[in-house]
Specification:
Number of helices: 3
Structural class: alpha+beta
Oligomer: single chain
Strand order of the largest sheet: 2-3-1-4
Largest sheet: 4 strands, antiparallel
Helix content: 25-40%
Order of helices and strands: EHEEHHE
Radius of gyration: 15 Å
Strand content: 15-25%
C-alpha cells in the first residue's frame, strides 16, 4: 500500500528549507519506522495543462498497514506531523493506493 500526500509550502517556507528538512529529518525518521518500506519526496516541476495545484508529492510505501497505524501514533511521528504542519499550507490531500501493476525495463 502507498500513502500519497499532495501539498504546498507556506509562503514563508523556502523550497531549500523544506527539502533540507525532508532529507535530514522527516525522510530518515519515516524510513526508520518498521512498517515503512520507503519514502520519496517529489517536486512537481511542470504540467501538460499548465496548472500545478500541488508542488510536492510525498509517497510512503507501506509494508505493513497495521504497523503503519501503530507507527503513526508514535511520539516521533506526531512530532514530525507538528513540524510538517508548520511548513505546509492547509489543504493537503492524502490518498491511499494499492499498486495494481508495474512494468520495468530489464
Amino acid at each position: 500500500m502507498k500513502e500519497i500526500v499532495l501539498y504546498n509550502l507556506k509562503d514563508e517556507v523556502t523550497e531549500e528549507q523544506y527539502e533540507a528538512y525532508f532529507r535530514n529529518k522527516k525522510g530518515p525518521a519515516f524510513a526508520a519506522f518498521p512498517s515503512c518500506r520507503s519514502v520519496t519526496l517529489n517536486k512537481v516541476v511542470d504540467s501538460k495543462t499548465g496548472s500545478i495545484p500541488y508542488r510536492y508529492v510525498a509517497v510512503v510505501e507501506i509494508a505493513d498497514p497495521a504497523g503503519w497505524e501503530k507507527d503513526t501514533a508514535s511520539e516521533v511521528f506526531q512530532e514530525i506531523l507538528r513540524e510538517w504542519g508548520e511548513m505546509v499550507k492547509e489543504g493537503a490531500h492524502i490518498l491511499f493506493a494499492e499498486e495494481v501493476g508495474r512494468w520495468e525495463k530489464e
